[in-house]
Every structure is written in structure tokens, then in C-alpha cells.
Amino acid sequence: xxxxxxxxxxxxxxxxxxxxxxxxxxxxxxxxxxxxxxxxxxxxxxxxxxxxxxxxxxxxxxxxxxxxxxxxxxxxxxxxxxxxxxxxxxxxxxxxxxxxxxxxxxxxxxxxxxxxxxxxxxxxxxxxxx
Length: 130
Prior knowledge:
By secondary structure, the chain is of the alpha+beta class. Helices cover about 15% and strands about 30% of the residues. The chain has three helices and seven strands; from the N terminus they run βαβαβββαββ. The chain has helices at about 15, 40-45, 100-105, and strands spanning about 5-10, 35-40, 60-65, 70-80, 90-95, 115-120, 125-130. The chain has a seven-stranded mixed sheet.
């Protein structure tokens, strides 16, 4: 489980900022505004960020923008690199993939930008554009 002041940086790519429209499959209609926050497996493992494949894992998080306490979203730790893996692949908006898209819009980030995530507690994250 993440600890207070754990931190990591991520460079965003089109797949992260434009998830709903930057797709390699035709399994569904494009959805503008969908996005996610990637978490490399080595960081997920180091920080003990689990998905629902791990029994009793805490997968709910609250994400706020540094310097803007009015913007807060609920997110989930989701996905895995391979079937059955307990380590998370990304944060996505709880029941709404457009929540991270709105977060990116509020931050003013785009593909190629770097973001920093800092854990304020084991399930509260502050995000900032670098």
C-alpha cells in the first residue's frame, strides 16, 4: 500500500490522454474525453498498488490537483500487464473514464507532458503538471 509522500513521475502519451479516441481496435465507438493515468508495473510493485485481482486490495483513490483543492475525483486502480496479475496498470475514473480526461483538461496537459503524483496518504493522491 502506498505511503504518505511516495511519489512518481510519468510522461504522458496519446494512448493515455486520448484513450477514448486513440484506439488500435474497433471493439467500440470512439469516446472523446476518455483518459487514464499509467502506472509502470515496476512502480506498482514497488509502491504496492494492487488491482482487484488481489483479495482485499484497496483499489479506491481520491485524486486532487496540487494547488486546487476544489477539483477532486474518485479513481480506481485498474488493469494488469497480464491476466491474473495483482499489480495495477493504471488509475481510471471510478465508473467514468472521462474523469481523468477532465483532470488532464484542468491541468492543461497533453501528450508529451510530464505529471507528478504524490501520495498524501495511502489512498489520496495529489497531481501536478511539471
